[in-house]
Design goal:
By secondary structure, the chain is an alpha/beta fold. It is built from eight helices and seven strands; from the N terminus they run H-H-E-H-E-H-E-E-H-E-H-H-H-E-E. Helix 1 crosses helix 4.
């Protein structure tokens, strides 16, 4: 299935901000549980792909959710500020509490917004990233193009996204986890049927090669694709020209 399949497919939930509002308070706990804590390690790899950041630089974190990546960027690069954007006010409310707890109000701003139409200037950011969110953007090309537009030449655009393993001895077990354990455990422990959307959205996402080609079609160069943990996630990096 290619990227042309609309994320609003009637066979599963829409991945909208309102959907994430309903699971915001349980989101962090369920992420740790469902990924066996692997999501933390994946995010560390994302930070390394952002490239060299200097004090005074701004970084864009799309689909910032509850702010984990935005806060991690501040820890990773002292003196750098982060603007996090997400369509879910519920998720952002959780994230803003974290920002206050870490006393990072001067460096982290979490804003409601649409990845397909960003209210930022061309070349504003030193780097940009999106974690586990590009599959929820209705028009992924627009989202990628906006990341490229708002990131300065030479800056990195980094995408971390879940995927469905295709090959390997353990691939069937990983697929079983995604197709059955994730939606059922998520729905049981959180009481939210929205976790069934997670499995469907991963299944509908293009292959790593297809998504890499999409990044290139949006003007990014030097595309790098790194498979993580049996192919259950991929890390994509492109450079703005």
């Amino acid at each position: 299935m290619t990227d042309s399949t609309p994320i609003s497919n009637p066979h599963f939930s829409d991945g909208s901000g309102l959907m994430f509002d309903r699971i915001a308070k349980r989101y962090d706990f369920m992420n740790r549980l469902i990924s066996f804590g692997l999501d933390k390690g994946w995010r560390k790899k994302l930070l390394r792909q952002l490239g060299t950041l200097q004090a005074g630089d701004q970084v864009l974190d799309l689909a910032t959710g509850t702010g984990d990546v935005a806060l991690a960027i501040c820890d990773h690069a002292p003196g750098v500020s982060v603007i996090g954007v997400d369509p879910s006010e519920g998720m952002l409310a959780v994230g803003r509490k974290k920002v206050i707890q870490e006393s990072l109000e001067a460096r982290v701003s979490l804003e409601t917004g649409d990845a397909q139409k960003l209210p930022f200037e061309d070349n504003q950011f030193a780097a940009s990233c999106i974690s586990f969110g590009i599959r929820n953007v209705p028009d992924r090309r627009k989202g990628l193009s906006e990341m490229a537009r708002t990131t300065r030449p030479g800056g990195k655009v980094v995408i971390l996204e879940l995927s469905e393993p295709e090959k390997g001895m353990l691939a069937p077990f990983a697929r079983f986890h995604i197709h059955h354990v994730v939606p059922n455990l998520g729905a049981f422990l959180s009481g939210a049927s929205e976790y069934r959307y997670l499995q469907k959205s991963i299944e509908a996402f293009p292959s790593a090669d297809q998504f890499g080609q999409m990044m290139a079609s949006c003007g990014l160069v030097d595309i790098q694709i790194q498979k993580l943990t049996l192919g259950t996630a991929h890390l994509y990096t492109g450079t703005v020209v």
